[in-house]
């Protein structure tokens, strides 16, 4: 939401075409992109939120985990592509031995205005052996904004 002369202006964002660049090995990073279009009648802003869910894990995992987000402003009718680079350590958890780890398996990914709303979805496959997370592993998701 942006402010203009004290009046809040909101974009009417549409999130589409969530894509991933193939499988990723446990301990690596994956790249995902999503197209955002302001379908509203005026300029405004949006916060693109990327969520994930580990479908099958050795312990119960949250139904939704925020992996990254990016705020952007769009003119009416304008589109942009948001690119996220996400280390698999964002999906790590403490296993039964209390060791922080990333397990191989399928992960649901989606973008929406909240964790409850899935506007566009895809699936990621984490491959390889279970990766024990160390202090040297990356933890932060990075994002970029590109013209559509």
Task: Describe the 3D structure.
A hairpin with a 2-residue loop joins strand 1 (2-4) and strand 2. The protein has a single domain, classed as Immunoglobulins (Immunoglobulin-like, Sandwich), CATH 2.60.40.10. Mean pLDDT is 91; it is low at 1-8. 0% of the residues lie in helices and 57% in strands. The strands form four sheets. It has a five-stranded mixed beta sheet with strand order 4-12-11-6-7, with no helix packed on it. The protein contains no helices and 14 strands. It is an all-beta fold and 148 residues long.
List keywords for this structure.
single chain; 148 residues; mainly beta; Immunoglobulin-like; five-stranded mixed sheet; four-stranded antiparallel sheet; 14 strands; 0% helix; elongated; disordered N terminus
Question: Distance between termini?
Answer: 21 Å
CATH architecture: Sandwich
Question: What are the segments in which pLDDT stays under 50 over at least 5 consecutive residues?
Answer: 1-8
Number of helices, where a helix is a run of at least 4 consecutive DSSP H or I residues: 0
Order of helices and strands: EEEEEEEEEEEEEE
Largest β sheet strand count, sense and barrel closure? 5 strands, mixed
CATH overall fold name: Immunoglobulin-like
Per CATH, the class reads Mainly Beta
By secondary-structure content and strand pairing, the structural class works out as mainly beta
Mean pLDDT, nearest integer?
Answer: 91
How much strand content do the residues show? Answer: over 45%
Shape: elongated
Helix content: under 10%
Strand order of the largest sheet: 4-12-11-6-7
The domain tally reads: 1
């Amino acid at each position: 939401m942006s402010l203009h002369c004290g009046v809040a202006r909101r974009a009417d964002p549409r999130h589409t075409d969530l894509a991933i660049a193939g499988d990723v090995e446990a301990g690596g990073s994956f790249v995902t992109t999503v197209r955002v279009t302001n379908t509203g009648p005026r300029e405004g802003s949006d916060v693109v939120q990327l969520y994930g869910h580990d479908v099958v894990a050795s312990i119960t995992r949250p139904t939704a985990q925020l992996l990254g987000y990016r705020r952007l402003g769009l003119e009416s009718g304008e589109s942009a592509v948001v690119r996220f680079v996400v280390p698999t350590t964002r999906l790590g958890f403490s296993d039964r031995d209390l060791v922080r780890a990333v397990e191989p398996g399928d992960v649901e990914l989606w973008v929406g205005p909240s964790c409850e709303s899935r506007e566009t979805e895809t699936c990621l496959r984490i491959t390889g052996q279970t990766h024990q997370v160390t202090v040297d592993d990356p933890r932060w998701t990075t994002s970029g904004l590109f013209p559509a």
